[in-house]
Amino acid sequence: MQKMIFLFFLGIMGNRSLLEAQVADTAFAAARYSFVHISDTTQPDNPFKENTILYLGKNMSNYTNYDRIERAQKAKANAQNKGLSVDIKDIDPSNIKSISINDGVATVTSNNGAVISFVPNPGAVNSYFKDQSALKLSYIASGGGKLFSVEEKIPAIEWIISQETKIIQGMQCQKAVGDFKGRTYEAWFCSQLPYNNGPWKLGGLPGLIIEAYDTKKEVMFNFTSFENAEGEPIAIGVPSDAVKTTPKEFKQYQDAITNGRAGIAGGGGVVVAGYGSRNGAPAPKPRKMNNPIEKETVK
């Protein structure tokens, strides 16, 4: 079973080309957010939380989980300090003694006692790429051992901009309200940061969206910081080997996998997996995932 789990990771990420994107842009700045989502309405005090980052390029952007990137960097540094390999392709499946997976971090122990930790493709899975020149949004997801690029048009949200303003971390922001995917969002944008963008799928305002939340406060994007890119260039591009698909087709694929697993398990009902635990701390209670961020049915 340990080797099967490892081979599953290898099937998704073992091909080096999966780790290489079709580089289309380079980030010149980044905005960080704290994302909060009450994914289970029966547990409003146990929301899913994560730190996210929006990399901004001239034509493209990438919104992704920054916690995962940090864990990958720490795992890589730890392995390098011990003189160990950090490339999954260097791990021999026949030499595995045990493997554990905690919060998306895989830790492999070989028969000779060597330990390697890694996060498979931390900057791609569950990322959102916006290509402003093509008006295209790509969501990167994995399923059944494959990597997918779920593509749709960048949403054209009909924002109503008000005259209401407030200061957020020293920046003058203006309020806008718009409906999107079954929720009404209040967004605060900063025209001093003239980027037609924002966290997740949000955007389309004359300034970067600094803060946004739905009127029920079930989904919240709270601004943390804005910084110019420094040091090694950060490439922005959709993974070249990701299979292109539509939201409808990907949902059908996910449903087929879920139904297949339920059948193998004896037809005991479909268990919908919610967001997992964070930083190694188990969730007090499994989330039912009865309150998706997108409430409208994919057509």
Features:
299 residues, disordered N terminus, 17 strands, globular, 12-stranded mixed beta sheet, alpha+beta
The topology string of helices and strands comes to: HEEEEHEEEEEEEEEEEEEH
Range of helix content? 10-25%
Largest sheet: 12 strands, mixed
Termini separation (Å)?
38 Å
Query: Compute the gyration radius: what is it?
Result: 20 Å
Q: With helices defined by DSSP (H or I, 4 residues minimum), what is the helix count?
A: 3
Helix/strand/pairing class, anyone?
alpha+beta
Overall mean pLDDT: 80
Strand order of the largest sheet: 11-12-13-14-15-2-3-4-8-9-10-17
Secondary structure: number of strands = 17
General form: globular
Strand content: 35-45%
pLDDT < 50 runs, ≥5 residues:
2-21, 264-278
What can you see in these coordinates?
- By secondary structure, the protein is α+β, with helices and mostly antiparallel strands.
- The chain is 15% helix and 37% strand.
- The model is unreliable at 2-21 and 264-278 (pLDDT under 50).
Which secondary structure elements does this structure contain, and how are they paired or packed?
Elements: H1 2-13, E1 25-26, E2 29-37, E3 48-56, E4 60-65, H2 66-81, E5 96-102, E6 105-110, E7 115-118, E8 128-131, E9 136-143, E10 146-153, E11 160-168, E12 171-180, E13 183-190, E14 208-214, E15 219-228, E16 235-236, E17 243-245, H3 247-264
Parallel strand pairs: 10-17
Antiparallel strand pairs: 1-16, 2-3, 2-15, 3-4, 4-8, 5-6, 6-7, 8-9, 9-10, 11-12, 12-13, 13-14, 14-15
